[in-house]
Each structure stands twice: as structure tokens, then as C-alpha cells.
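Many introductory courses stop at the sequence. We go one step further.
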Amino acid sequence: MNKFAIFAGLINFRRGLLLASALVLGALTGCASMQASIPLSELDSFTAKTESQRVLNRVRVRWEVRDDVAQVCSQKVSSLGAQTVQAAPIACAVWNVPAQECVIVTARQVNHVTLGHELRHCFEGNFHH
């Protein structure tokens, strides 16, 4: 077995381990309202936009932790007219290009996938197409 095959095997093993860990963590926390809302596609890799395609490159990020995250995020999204809210959001990011600032809003109970997803919005804007 050559070095490339070993490396490819390790990558596939790590990807499988990450997916299994996420599933076990979701089952152990028992937090169905948040964990079940995150599709497994969020664990997929994506191609980052180039600097010229991003909404912001140098950004000041502020993180608001709120008990009323669904209400706050629904209001922020609807006031921007950015997208239709189909379900109660578990987090959101609102970016201000002139100020080069982005505010991420989450509940106190949050996971790395959700926080990372919202941070991507800070740089790339609305990537849901």
C-alpha cells in the first residue's frame, strides 16, 4: 500500500468518525429541537468563495447569546427581506458591509456546526441559493 492510499484511507476514516461522532453526540444530548434541525449536509465540505466574491474579508464579529433567538432572528431576517423564514431559526448572522461588522445570534445551547455556519455567513453573505 502506497503513502497516497494510506492518506486517502485516513481521510475517509476521519470523515466517517466525524459523522459518527456527530450522530452519537446528537443522540446523547437529547436536544431534539436544535440537533434535529441541522441537516447532515452541514457536515459536507464546501468551496470557499474567493476574496473578491465575499461580502466581507476583514470583519469584526460579535456573538449575542439570547434566550429569544428564534424571535430575534425571525425579526432580523424579515426586516432585511433577505429570505422567507420557513421554520423557527436556531441562529442567524446579520452583517453590515460599511461597518465591516457581523453579529451572530445563538441560543445559550449551541453546537460547533451552527456557530461555524453562521460565521460563514459573516464572510460570504447569503450562500443559501
